[in-house]
Amino acid sequence: MIPILSALGIQVCSLPTAILSTHTGGFANFHFRDLTSDMRYIIDHWRQLSLSFAGIYSGFLGSPEQIDIVSDFIKTFRTDSTLVVVDPVLGDDGKLYDTMDRCMVDGMRSLVASADVITPNITEAALLLDKAGPPVISGTKEIKIWARALADLGPRCVIITSVPEEHGRGTSVVAFDKDASRFWKVACPYIPACYPGTGDIFASVITGSLLQGDSLPLSLDRAVQFVSMAIRATFGHNFPEREGVFLERVLPSLNAPVSMSSFELI
Q1: Element (H, E) at 104
Q2: Which residue among 77, 125, 134, 204 is least packed, with the fewest CB closer than 10 Å?
Q3: What's the count of helices (H) and strands (E) in the chain, helices before strands?
Q4: What is the rounded CA–CA span in Å between residue 256 and residue 250?
Q5: Which sequence ranges form a coiled-coil region, renumbered to this chain (predicted)?
Q6: What value does the CA radius of gyration of the chain take, rounded to a whole number of Å?
Q7: Which residues pair with 118 in a beta bridge?
Q8: Per-residue 3-state assignment (H helix, E strand, C coil) for 42-80
Q9: Strand partners for 20
Q10: Between the CA of residue 1 and those of 5, 11, 156, what are the distances in Å?
Q11: Which carries the bigger pLDDT value, residue 165 or residue 73?
């Protein structure tokens, strides 16, 4: 998140929720230090300094208490011009992550209500909508219903990733702009690999693009193209998937013009 936003010219003030020796997918015996007790002290200091923020961006959270802290942070520092983005990190592939439970789902549902933009994957969208079992989408009409239902929770923009294509093995990103009542879609090239962190990369490019003043469809294009480029730069090397993509190799391309607009109205 930090290098992407920095590369986009945005000063990042990070509020760490935990320190880990590695991420939690594919690694055993990782070291984890919970920083929940430190978060309020950091926030109190920022309040004393009268800091203000163009955007507030929330990603992985480790406990219901952290969700409450972030919710309070938004209430304290938000202004009429602040962009609030919540990536409701809960699960993937039809199931919760090992560190998540139903309490976290309930807490995240309340947090997305205070967001301007949310970026769930298809599994997280199903969890937020309290749909049982692995998510199954029958077509464009149904994913539109899901996006509207998520927008009804509070956010004005819903971006759902990893939406299965009706025909073929690829996926797409579907976005709903509640204010304009428009749906956008960007198809994602299929590559037979699964790298951790690509959801964080996607949401970070979306956040940076919107803060730079890009439109929603252009932000979708930039994010999909950048994630695809990062995956392509990594795929084909004899490199463990659990170690993620070669982010540093593609960072300079973040500020290049979008080479092709692939978004479409649906």
Answers
A1: helix 102-112
A2: 134
A3: 9, 11
A4: 11
A5: none
A6: 18
A7: 86, 158
A8: HHHHHHHCCCCCCEEEECCCCCHHHHHHHHHHHHHHCCC
A9: 32
A10: 6, 12, 23
A11: 73
Residue 219 burial by CB count (10 A; 0-12/13-18/19+): exposed, middle or buried? buried
SS3 55: strand
Number of neighbouring beta carbons within 10 Å of residue 214:
18
Buried b (16+ CB within 10 A) or exposed e, 65-77: ebbebbbebbeeb
Please name the helix (run of DSSP H) or strand (run of DSSP E) that holds residue 56, with its range, or none.
Answer: strand 55-58
Amino acid in the structure at residue 54 = A
pTM of the entire predicted model: 0.94
The number of C-alpha atoms within 13 Å of 176 and in the hemisphere containing its C-beta is: 22
Separation of alpha carbons 39 and 60, rounded Å: 14
Q: Which of 163-172, 188-197, 254-263 has the highest mean pLDDT?
A: 188-197
The H or E element spanning position 84 is strand 83-86
Q: Which residue has the tokens 């690509």?
A: 198
Phi, psi of 146 (to 5 degrees): -60, -45
Distance CA 17, CA 33 (A): 9
Lookup: tokens for 185 = 């879609």
pLDDT tens, 139-174?
899 999 999 999 999 999 999 999 998 776 789 999
Helix (H, G, I), strand (E, B), or coil: what is residue 256? Answer: coil
Q: Find tokens 């730069």 and name the residue.
A: 233
The token duo for 181 is 């009542």
Look at the block and give the residue holding tokens 């294009």.
Answer: 221
Going by their DSSP bridges, the two strands 91-92 and 83-86 should be labelled as unpaired
